[in-house]
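note to self: dont lose this again. the chain is below, predicted strucutre after it. 1333 aa total, dont forget to put it in the shared folder this time
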Amino acid sequence: MLLKSAAAKWERLREQWQSRFPLNPEDPSAGSWLQARNSPWGVGCKACHECGCESSFASFGVKTEAGLQLVNFQKHANNMRHKAAVESYLLGDLDAAGINSAPSKTEFLDILGRIQKGQPTCTQRKEKCMTWCLAEAMKTLDHRTLEKASAIGLYRDERNGRVLVRCRAVSESLEVCSFVLGQERFGGTGARNLTTATASIFKRACTKYVAPPGKEGVLSELNDALHEHLRTSVTAITTDAAADETLSGELMRSTVAGIRELTPNLKWVLRDKCHASRRITSRPWHADAFLQETLKYMAGGRGSVARLLQHSSEVQRIFSSFAQDSDVALAKVVSNFRSAQHRFESYAKPLGRSCLYLHAAIRTCLHLAKARQDATGKQAQNWLTWITSERALQAAMLADASDASLALTRLFDQECMDPAMIRTELIAYRRQIRALFVKGECFSCFGYTKTMADLLSEPIVFQAKDQTKSLGETGGVAASIKDSCLHRMQAWVKLAESAIEAEFPCFELAQAMTVFDLEHPTDNAEECLTRIATACGLDKGLLVAQWEDVYSRAQVHYSRASSQNENRAAWCRALRLLKQHIATKKAHPTHVLEKALLHYFVFGGSSSGVEQNFSKTAWSIYSRRHFATGESEEFVAKVVLDSHLYDETELVHLARLAWRMCYGQPRRHVDARVDKGVKRKLNDDLIAGKCQSEASFIRRRRAAAAAAAATQSLDEEIAGVLPAWTQQHEAEKQFQKRKQHLRQVQAMAEKSLLPSEMSSQLQAEVDICRKNLQKNEEAREKKRARLQTFDSQTVADVVSQIGSGKVYLHAAASATAAASAESDLNVHGLRRTLIAKEASAILCDIPGGISDSRIKLISALNGCFECSYSFFSSGQGAVVKWKAAAFSQRAVLASVQCATQNAAFWSFLRANLPDNHAWVLHKTAVQNLKATQLQYKAGVAYIVVTEDEVQHAALSGAKNVLTGLTRCFCGRLARPCIWLLRPRKYRIAMVEELASFRTPKKILVGSDFSGLDSAWFALQRLDLPVELQFCSDSDEKCKALIQGIHRPKRFHDDVIKRKPGEELPVHLYIFTPPCQSFSCQGKRAGIQDARGRAMKGSFGYIKRRRPRVVLFENVPGISEKKHKPVLCGMHKALKKLGYIMWLKTLDSSNFKVPQMRRRVFLVSILKTSLRRKFKWPKGQGKKTLSSVLDPAKESDKAGRLPRNQNAARMAKLAYSKVWAEGIDARKQLVAVDVGCTEKYLTFGVDICRTLSRTRAATGGFWLSTLGRKMSVTEIVRVNGMLAKEVEGCFDYVSEKDLCKMIGNSVPVPLIGEILQEAMFAAGLISVKKQFPC
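---
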């Protein structure tokens, strides 16, 4: 109403006011600076608005009658900034006088340079705003590109909870532009969430001024026309082969379960060719046990020589020294043997290097086997025992094969990969592996196999354990060994070709794109063009004619092309020249060919660009990622990834315009720029007959392999039955055939098959797939809607569903609860009944877990509500709703003997079945049961017999046969009967999903401030059915270890920043916040310290999720008087949430741990989950330090003092103190902390004092009887851990980092016994056992 009256006043006085305040008094025709804006309506100054001033007039914010006053207009006209803005507006220079201008071009260029170097640019408000302006400028340029696009291809991938989408836009003139469309925080899993995230990215990509940092009230503007154009122009999307990704592509182009068609014209859902190329090698190799074993011991496995050399700097030093004077194929020593388990192609380098440096690797392992008695020495000894001439030669062949596969993968591992080259590269690859392993040219062609054969031409003799081994022979490797290795590789070649046919089928559209390859003309051009015309809806005859007319012209321009995509550039050049003159344009029409080329240009084959973008973004903003909002991370990622694509002058100009729209005068700050370096020139010259480097070796090997493949023909078939062919090979081949058929079904759905390749059977399979897609998505939506209906209902909702029904009160554990229950029912208008069959709801102690089987059966038959006693009184508690099983069609077929023996049960069942039930109860002889069951539909009829009859011959092949009803005669319902009813339960009250009262089949565990996560080691040692839901830690080393070893479903970097929607429910929750704030060794700032306040996130989780068991651990200092309010606050908060608590300080030395480590533990169990009384564990006794130390070595010397002067003084002081007590430190073990000052000196006789993080990282304590510090394995055992538990840890962290984590962790036996007692009391486990120490 106020806005309407103000608008009416403006219309009435507008001409008078505008004539009073002109822009230029000398030129009235220039108009007035006083103007009105319609959407949203407001009055303001257009001069101040264009100059970027900050005021209500500049933002057209005058919207009331009180504001529309002549005096207000006059005040604004007299303002100095307004006068300068008017002058700048008239001159056309919006930066005149520097009034409220954007940052200078130099400042924006500096921000760009820093972003490209990976330096942080959002630490200050101004820098963050400038980065956003650059992203908005890029978005403006992207809008221009999208508006011109005739076809658009998408590239999408997901990593670390983020979805990133790249876009390739192709205009009508075949201009190609690729850029990042956007990024979205991924809130869940599944195809639906992926589709929703993609839709959000689409909208933001078409919206200007999205969430400018620090600027509220700026309206974002969605360009509806551009958004619709983007949706309808997408014709292809490239993803990896994950099921969610491909299903999301189908959802994007179909209307399923309420999802609107996001991209209605999407034709092709393409799978990443790079991932497919990896599977050519990985799957066939795993089909052969010998090849898999060879790869494991040479490159990939835990016992491999590559891992042995990679994960220890000391071992690398030893290896490098041996490699200097060993017989190796390279002049330069390489000691990096790193590989990534999730990237199979990364095994190529460690495998090849293990072969090239075999002699040095053997010498290194011999040294380790003699000098070390730990796990490293045993690993070296095992490898020496394993290696043979045959395995070494086989490894070299695998190295040649993996390098060939790696070269193929690298060709496909780029977004700009030319689909026209796919077929050519695959043919070259097949020729190469056939020449090497089918023809046997790997022994004569330069490469790993020839190098290994030359190395084994002279025997390598060494001692491994108790046997003398020899690798190689004087005359070279035996012919039988060569043949055996070749046979295995020939089987692999056959499987690899099957994998190629499945991953790159000849009928897919990508193979047809080879017709546009100008360097290698195809011999089936007409077939390819027919396939393209069919898939794209083009006229086949015109396409063939125009292609034949232009192809030779494009070949002429092929050599002149200078772009990275030579084929595309040559085609564009040929078409451009034909269109230059009207005569050639008319004589050589190309309109159909241009449409085909449009799809060729937009056609993608690899999502590697997205993966590389993820890596680049992580490199640039990773350290600040967990602090950034989704919007901030998106615009920073946009600038990081795409800043090199645009003209800097235009980009900065648009960024400054964006600044003027949102911000005022900035502060000035300029940094110097740093130039980039240049690459060194490659040199492949040989030095003394050796390659200079591994890179030059690989280049030479690939050139030789290509030359060998040049004469290889693919027309010859590999022998049908190979000597090394096994059932695993055949199974893998059949798997690839099934995959190829599925690809054919997809091609049929996308209309990429030729008419001769189509069939009614394929069309039927396509229809079935579409129906299943619709059916599955509707089922998911129905389930989601059903769960949402039952979720978070109140007491009133439950009462309304019970209606006029009655409530039955089951025996309560508490007499008080039962007495007050009837009055609570009266308050809600409900009536009580004494007959369970009449009840619509049952009040009980444990909803869903009633102990009386008869009441449970009645509840399931009638579909009753089971409510806890507290639900109707306080609204807190649990409610379980059973589906009425009696109204689901069931036929219960009982044998005569079962009916006779359990007559009481059957009578009870008949009496309690409700009216109009859908059950059939039938009794017959056991011989007739199977025939009777076949009269019903599948899944309807169930056979019930006695335990003696279950093996009866007449029941052979019968389904749904149940036993165990003999116990029902005693009044207890057997478990199979409950399974027979097939109840479906839904949570509908205030408790969380896992706040049930039964012993779970799998215990879900979560921990915060996890560190090494000793609790998880303890649970695994107890051999319990546990599943790790989540962990959290801010330390990157801990994160790497936990994700590599424990592998939780989700990992959180910051507990405080964690959002409720990211949390997963658990039964058992452990949180061990940083102890520095409460320790006597720290500042003892308590919750005044940020580390002490981190507990806030844990209590937020407990409040929202209510785990059944909560365990808190910290140092004894938290129980001191200074920090007593903290413990009291924790106690009150947990009590308010319904927990019962037990607090105690325990010493790990009483739990068979040779370390005196006192810790405070707080065990909290939900009241409603408490089954038994909690008892603190008493421990299993003491263990001496000497019992866990490594055997004494020759280098150990009793009584030796440390070299460091202060450390030696501390050791002497400790020895003198124990000497006064009659203990000789040279004869009896004394562990001394020599890294401290005299004030904090601690020592123990045959036991360790508390092993801190710092002390563990520096080698632990000084051992008096050995004259040295502790080894890594000794530190592990001192903390109660087993050596086998940490074997895999060294794959992710160094020995020093692992020791730090051990110093920060709770001893495993101590926390293990506490967890077992807590879970037993809470009903998570039903049996306790002695903790294995």
